[in-house]
Amino acid sequence: MQEDVLMARWRYPSLSIHGIQGAFSDPGTKTVIPKQVTGKFSIRQVPNMDPPDVERKVKEHLQQVFSTLNSHNRLRVTATVGAKPWVANLKDPQYIAGQRAVREVFGVDPELIREGSTIPIAQNFQEETGKSVMMLPIGGHDDGEHSQNEKISRYNYIEGTKLFAAYFYELSLLQ
């Protein structure tokens, strides 16, 4: 069971609802029907998913479901960002240097997981430069990326600084 939860978090596509605007959300009864309601969501894509294809399929599905409602309302679906999934080459020498640096600073081997995140520029950098992109772990599991709980602890900030120094040292040793 725990493996299924981790696989869903680290390996599989997912849909996240970020908010609904225009609908009454305060406690209590409300009988007013809003003129317009906007829903925002994102889809975490994984390797072999093509953003334009996913966008087309999502739009078609939503329009098909909406058409069965026989509603006088209108549905408009827009996409703002579509980014290819990024996957690192863990055999790249800089990843070996990163693993050594994590071991040096934290005293443990890094867990090489496929954590989803919203950094579409990573894939762009990799494609444009022809070089691998490296992301080092300095945040904690409770840092709440991109949310009202976004933060970095003093410990992670200090240890992250050490990690960067150790990483640059390990890079300097590469042939």
UniProtKB/TrEMBL annotation:
The keyword Metal-binding applies. GO terms for molecular function: dipeptidase activity; metal ion binding. Transmembrane segments: none annotated. Gene3D superfamilies: 3.30.70.360, Zn peptidases (3.40.630.10). The keyword Lipid metabolism does not apply. GO terms for cellular component: cytosol. This is Peptidase M20 dimerisation domain-containing protein.
